[in-house]
Specification:
This protein has eleven helices and 13 strands. It is α/β, with parallel strands linked by helices. The chain has two domains: about 180 residues, Thiolase/Chalcone synthase (Peroxisomal Thiolase, Chain A, domain 1), CATH 3.40.47.10; about 130 residues, Peroxisomal Thiolase, Chain A, domain 1. The protein binds oxa(dethia)-CoA.
Length: about 350
């Protein structure tokens, strides 16, 4: 059975930086740099311009990942696309990306399968587990695994939505997951979900139980209420569950392979709140230097956080061949997961 390893990483964030102060001056949100930094560690985020879709960000990150993997794009045999802000409700963004990558062009068109994953902040790890399983089954040799978001179009950038909209940013990270006979790669993963907490962090956007699924005005046009249009979050509940689940899934996954926290060279945690990650780091007694964070610069890019972290850590030399990496995520659903990789 082959092993699955990450053969190339890439990322792309839109050029427009929005600082915490600009949320106050440009968007007139009643917040402050002090409030946001103190509670979350976030200093700025990137916002895509109107006209830019999730698959556009993913395309640029994919090109970098494919280049770094040293393969031809036509060697990709499957696309897995994790996002909660897809280009459209359907079809999935993986189909848009496939076309933009040119995989449908000419006589050598590959028409590879494209799978969208809807597991929010845990989406990339659910995708990694899927890619790992596909590769270990022998079905495919190279999977393009994407985590990408355009949040800025779909968050309530007013004071009403400040408990959510000040936290999120846009960006894409992509990895190529490849088969290898070498003794390296994804060693173990665990995933979990607890649907009892679905209402703690959700965006209803439509309610398919209703007839019609969104309310209509007197002229028969759809009326989207703010509480349907934008994400809602019980921040304190998310914080508490995140700490508990991230610690337990990390310790369980290490225990599954008879390893301890000391064996891990680099911890890459979902970038939702720097304070959550620091709290866990202190609870576990792990040295701060073993963590790499970028939430200060990008905010929470949901499915994008882990692949952007991987790409930046590789680019700046924090992540080197032979290192043992522990990835831990938590998000809406609730969903969570951990993966251990020998890089
Ligand atoms: O991928 C998972 C994504 N989400 C998370 O991981 C979030 C986890 N939770 C958190 O990070 C924290 O709960 C937050 C940072 C979101 C909020 O911190 P908190 O200390 O739990 O604040 P809170 O929601 O209890 O709100 C306290 C006060 C409220 O005002 P009142 O009602 O006491 O007058 C909020 O309206 O802070 C207010 N508030 C803000 N004030 C300024 C909420 N957001 C903001 C803001 N700026 N951005």
């Amino acid at each position: 059975m082959p092993n699955a390893y990450i053969s190339g990483t890439g990322y792309y964030v839109p050029p427009r930086r929005v600082t915490n102060d600009e949320l106050v001056t440009e968007y007139r949100i009643d917040t402050s740099n002090e409030w946001i930094v103190q509670r979350t560690g976030i200093e700025e985020r990137r916002f895509a311009d109107a006209g830019v879709s999730c698959s556009d960000l993913a395309l640029k990150a994919s090109e970098m990942a494919i280049r770094n993997a040293g393969i031809d794009k036509k060697a990709i045999e499957m696309i897995i696309f994790a996002t909660l802000s897809p280009d459209q409700h359907f079809p999935g963004s993986g189909c848009f990306l496939q076309e933009k990558l040119g995989l449908c062009d000419g006589d050598s068109a590959t028409f590879v399968p494209a799978l969208d994953i809807r597991n929010q902040c845990s989406g990339f790890l659910y995708g990694l587990a899927t890619a790992d399983s596909m590769i270990k089954s022998g079905a495919v040799k190279h999977v393009l695994l994407v985590g990408a978001e355009v949040h800025s179009a779909a968050i309530d950038l007013t004071t009403r939505g400040r408990n959510v909209s000040t936290l999120f940013g846009d960006g894409a990270g992509v990895v190529v997951v490849s088969a290898t006979d070498a003794d390296r790669g994804v060693r173990r993963w665990n995933l979990g979900a607890d649907g009892r907490n679905a209402d703690k962090l959700h965006m209803r956007i439509w309610d398919i139980s209703k007839r019609p699924y969104i309310p209509l005005d007197e002229s028969g046009n759809g009326c989207m209420l703010p509480e349907m249009m934008y994400p809602n979050m019980n921040g304190k509940a998310v914080f508490k569950h995140a700490v508990e689940r991230m610690i337990s899934v990390l310790l369980k996954t290490l225990g599954d392979v008879n390893q301890s926290l000391n064996d891990v060279d680099l911890f890459l945690f979902h970038q939702a709140n720097l304070r959550i990650n620091q709290f866990i780091q202190q609870q576990l007694g792990v040295p701060e230097e073993k963590f790499f964070h970028n939430i200060q610069r990008y905010g929470n890019t949901t499915a994008g956080t882990i692949p952007i972290l991987l790409a930046e850590a590789e680019e700046n030399g924090r992540l080197k061949p032979g290192m043992k990496v522990a990835i831990v995520v938590f998000g809406s659903g609730f969903t969570w997961g951990c993966a251990l990789i020998d890089w």
